[in-house]
Write a structure and sequence with these properties.
Oligomer: single chain
CATH topology: Hypothetical protein af1432
Distance between the termini: 45 Å
Number of helices: 11
CATH architecture: Orthogonal Bundle
Radius of gyration: 16 Å
Bound molecules: 2'-deoxyguanosine-5'-diphosphate, fe (iii) ion
Order of helices and strands: HHHHHHHHHHH
Strand content: under 5%
Shape: globular
Length: 194
């Protein structure tokens, strides 16, 4: 039994709201299921899922100040869409506050909201698990995405990214260029393979 995970849970539970903690557990287990399906170390997937929203103990409005304080550089776009910053700040917290040094885990946490071009396997697992976990209930395409996640992970990443972009555009919300670049990268690669 990896006792570190129990310590992470104890600490996280104190920091997050009950709903956010439940979401984190659920993402953690969903990451493990996807890791079983796609052949990724289960323990790393479990930790990435558990800690991915560890920065959600702060309000979006606090991140710009906190990042400046710790020398974490933000783009102007990130400052305009502060809801994406908890991913970058979360990766920093995972390293500094939870002692995680595994670069794949830190990368997955850092890109779990916007994605990034050329995501690695754990990046994709976390990105998809965050969307399909059992406590999510908003998106109409959830049943389809839950099935797709276990049959074609790349297609699930693509469809979720496209859906997010459409959602943000329809509501005139500020879009981080990383969200757009992720979609464009996947779209181009998909067309090449057609
Ligand atoms: O932290 P969670 O609620 O579990 O989910 P998340 O980290 O995927 O991100 C929360 C929201 O951020 C989600 O509704 C999608 C949205 N998002 C993703 N890319 C962008 C974005 N919001 C803005 N404003 N701009 C983006 O580029
Ligand atoms: Fe998040
Ligand atoms: Fe999340």
């Amino acid at each position: 039994m990896n006792t570190d995970i129990l310590e992470y849970r104890k600490k996280l539970r104190k920091k997050l709201s009950e709903a956010r903690y439940e979401h984190s557990l659920s993402v953690s287990y969903t990451c493990v299921c996807l890791a079983m399906r796609y052949g990724y170390p289960l323990d790393k997937a479990e930790v990435a899922g558990l800690l991915h929203d560890c920065a959600k103990c702060y309000a979006d409005s606090e991140f710009v100040h906190k990042c400046a304080k710790h020398g974490i550089l933000l783009t102007e776009e990130e400052k305009k869409a502060p809801s994406v910053i908890h991913a970058k700040y979360g990766a920093w917290m995972a390293r500094e506050k939870y002692g995680i040094h595994d670069e794949e885990i830190l990368s997955a946490i850092a890109c779990h909201t916007t994605g990034k071009p050329d995501m690695g396997l754990l990046d994709k697992i976390l990105y998809v698990a965050d969307y399909i976990e059992i406590r999510r209930d908003k998106a109409a395409n959830l049943p389809e995405m839950r099935r797709l996640a276990f049959t074609d992970l790349d297609e699930a990443v693509y469809q979720i990214t496209r859906g997010t972009l459409t959602y943000l555009e329809s509501r005139n919300m500020p879009i981080d260029s990383m969200t757009r670049r992720t979609y464009e990268y996947l779209n181009e690669r998909r067309q090449k393979h057609e």
